[in-house]
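Re: your question about Integrase

S., sorry for the slow reply, the queue was backed up all week. Below is exactly what I fed in.
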Amino acid sequence: MPRKLPPHVERNQVKGHTYLSFRRGKGPRVRLPNDPTSEEFMAAYQAALLGQSAPVRDRLAPAAPGTIAALIASYMRSAEYIGLRDTSKTGYISRLETLRTEHGHRTVAGLSRERIVTGILQPYADRPGAALDTLKKLRILIRHAINIGWLKHDPSLGIKRPKIKKIRSWTDDEIEQFKKRWPLGTKQRTAFHLFLNLGQRRSDVVRMAQTHITPERKIRIKQQKTGRELLIPLHRDTVEALDAYDMQHVVIITTAYGKSFTVDGFSGWMRDAISEAGLPLDCKPHGLRKAAGRLLAEAGATAKMIMSVLGHTTLAEAERYTEEADQAGLAEDAVIKLEGHKANRIAQTTSVGLGKTPKTRGKSDRKE
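Result:
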């Protein structure tokens, strides 16, 4: 039985000879080495995933045994990596290639906590997001090294995760400001409602099509990240936005040329729309997903209800929204009670005369 090939790799027959090639969708074919178990194949495959038409020569050179480059090649042949979704592989390959390029010559046995912190993570001191992603991927490689017997313990233990600034929810005022700039009928306003009222990620919004909408005004979504299949009723504001929008393609949101967006292209286009609305840089498209969760919680939706819309896989993720809404509501009720208590308080006796002993008339003062 032929070996199962990685995503986007084809077997081609030409004049009785079999060769392997990389092809994403209807894009061009890129020739790959014929042995899918070789390090040369994995290096060429990495380059093709990164969109490089021809791999650099040193990528085709076999990695020295026991090095980080050899560990990366071993991991990419593992069932754990092969079982990842294509979208996850794309994110992994970029970071793994950076580790291979910058640290591939280092030995796995020489990894220590100090070397990881100073040699691998320190260059990202001003980019905590990149530092966190690097640490995550490095720990995946370390776990693989332990599984195959290259390491006996985890040298990254005790390294604190870099703190990154979380994407915040849009405020009600910011939502209204965007709507004021982009009226109904515009592509920007339509995309805005798909984000806000459906609470989905950009990778899901960019793929939404007319064929996903049912006659009952619901939309079917298969989340790219989690694989969850959702059926969500369309909010009346979303229905109004779709009715006002002139859709000329099966995909709802398209480029100016009527083509489907890439995820990154869609994100950049939405970023431009947000900037043109005069909103701050920390108003991000993903913040509309956060706003959806916040608004659902403030409307009294339970954590499980929020999960059914946003597609969270754990209850704890959805409970954050309900806890924040409960805190805000309870605080408001508490202040109202305090104000009412003060307003209804009966005024105390004035301080004039307090502590003075009232004068009493003696017998001589009494009138006979």
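The chain has a mean pLDDT of 84. Residues 9-147 form one domain.

Happy to talk it through on Thursday.
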